[in-house]
Amino acid sequence: MSFPLGKMKFVFAFLLVILAANLLMAQAVRTNQVGENERMVPTGDGHAVPEAKPVGGTVVTGNGINYNGGPVLKGNPVPIYIIWYGNWNGTGSNTPATTSLIEGFLASNSLGGSSYEAINTTYGDNTGNVSGHLNFIKAVFDTGSQGTKLRNSRISAAISAQLTGGGLPTDPNGVYLFITSSNVSESGFCSSFCGFHTHQTLNGADIKWAFIGNSDRCPSACSIQATGPNSPATGVGGADGISNIITHESEESITDPDLNAWFDNSGNEDADKCNFKFGPTGTASNGARFNQTFGGHNWMIQMEWENSRGGGCDQTLGGPFFTN
Ligand SMILES: [Zn+2]
Question: Within the chain, what is the greatest distance between any pair of CA atoms?
């Protein structure tokens, strides 16, 4: 495993993240130093709030991550909506093969019902636990209503248009994934983050949404390997890169939807604590590494932080912990 980003680049990225993280939580790009992501100190809404004392039986603490008093998403399953933004009828990984693969990846009989997603059941709030289930509900395409050079306000406008226009339901209990084709830029994407999640009031509801960039725009920063287990051709790893970023941002959107529930003393949410850590891997027929098999496919997705047994990164609920 190589981590090609140099230290200076990281320092630059670190500063950008501090500037950018006031209203969102970002997945850092890959780094070449163990634990670098631990130094990120996002300053989301709740970070000055002291750790709340557990009230019900659903909040378990003492496992390296703190409960800060806010709600988690408790849908069983949590509904997932997708806005495919940009040109998804293109070449490389910007194709219907990718959109189909990812929609299937998020289904209840794939990621949505996996023993991996079940790791999230170790998180709760004072009224209940995360179900550990999610399910893809609906996708829409936006071929570029906000252009190809995005910033957060343009993403908000594009999502809002889907809600007010009825393309997607207005669901404060769901997660909206805004996934961009590789010709689309977003301020900070590839230089400081691969994805991020946030929440804001759109169409009158508290909407949780995440930006997911096609990692083929910057594979050295946002893909763990150039060719993934689902690559259509050598070096076209975007779909697998997207699946990895989705696991990161969806887990965090569920356990910290309003940026005031679960994160540690450094501001790291559950997926941040295992960012680009995969654990043991196998080798697919095309030579790519993978660490999960469900829904009829092999996947290479980061581990998640289990909030039990002292805390650690694992591939399945109750499985062994691994440090990278
Ligand atoms: Zn994160």
Answer: 52
Nearest Cα to Cα of residue 84 among 9, 30, 138: 138
User: 25-34, pLDDT tens digit by residue?
Assistant: 888 888 643 3
Neighbours of ion ligand 1 (CB under 5 A): 27, 252, 271-272
Classified as helix, coil or strand, 99 is helix
CA distances to 36, 162, 215 from 178, in Å = 27, 11, 14
- How many angstroms separate the alpha carbon of residue 285 from the centre of ligand 1? 31
Q: pLDDT for 60-77, tens place per residue? A: 999 999 999 999 999 999
Ligand 1 centre to CA of 137 (Å) is 23
Sign of the C-alpha dihedral computed for residues 178, 44, 266 and 114 taken in this order: negative
CA 14 to centroid of ligand 1, rounded, Å: 14
Those residues with Cβ within 8 angstroms of residue 209's Cβ, 6 or more apart along the chain or in another chain:
155, 159, 175, 176, 177, 178, 197, 198, 199, 200
